[in-house]
Prior knowledge:
The chain has 398 residues and is an alpha/beta fold.
Amino acid sequence: MYICGIVCEYNPFHLGHRYQIECVKRALGDGETGIVCVMSGDFVQRGEAAAFTKFDRARAAVAGGADLVLELPLPWSLSSAEGFARGAVGALGALGTVTHLAFGSESGKLDMLERAAQTLALPEFDEHLRAALRSGVSYAAARQTALARLGGEEAFDAVGAPNDILAVEYLRALQTLPVRIRPLAVRRCGAAHDSDAPCAMPSASFLRARLEAGEDIGAYMPEQAFAALQSGEGPISRTKMETALLSRLRFLPPEAFAVLPDAGEGLHNRLCRAAHTEPTLREIIAAAATKRYPNARIRRMLMCAALGIRAGDNAGIPPYLRVLAANAAGLKILRDAQPHAALPIVTKPAKLRETGGEALRIFELGAAASDLCGLCLEDTDAVRGDRDWRRSPAVISD
């Protein structure tokens, strides 16, 4: 039996995600392939709260075709593409039974993506990157320039689209971490990443926009996945979340911004001034961002500031594997993984209080973020604190 890992956010799970799982099963053997997802928690890599809680999204994922959903802890969920990929691939490798890693790709050209990943690992790459940055361009543009100089036009093309950028980082993680996992590129179909255009297989961005407008998204999701969301806690209010985040940011002293991930070259000072003066998150980002520092980086730094994440919190790989949801096949994957897992598998969070150490500290960061999301729900029972400590994995019947 093959076990295929998928790194995801499922924000929310939609028809394109089900299509990817179906493609994996066709490629590796339908009925014989287990699907293990490592999913961002309550905050996602673009630097904002997810539309639904991690508990609801994990249940929807299993209802939509996944077998087991593990949480990517908060510091890695809010990392750059490199840290995000390293944390997720490291978690899959630590499970000990994952044989493949599948990822979406605009190009679908695995050989081209692998060459780009190898080029990024060359010793001279950093020198070319620094030279490009000195010209004043953004980090993304500088990296493309350095890739083109060292790896040629194909390497340049490999980091030109969102899914391919992440794909290259997954491949870099596979090349550098001590894991034996084979890559599987799945050509992306349907709407482009972040597209707000309607189509038969729209993007998650399109669904979130409809959700924010108070419109129904059921037609764009697998029926079982939509039912799982409908029976959950409901969407997170963006208005409530913005107020909560702004209040936390206003209380932070300047030294809290100085220890943020990616806080260099005076960027933390710009961010601190903006966070204490601007009236909305959008205006904070606009005031702090520059050509050199794109909006996505500023958004992640803001979320890290509000949630207490410091530089170095996302070093290496996560210290535990937290189970969010599983079906019968997923439970079997867990049982088979127990003798091989290189990290503790967490199904009862209270045990982390006994072990303490770095795992407890990282879990506490995520638990506080989960409680913040609870305050932004309409369900009064969900507002109760200690949400993460009280939740057991959801077991979904087939």
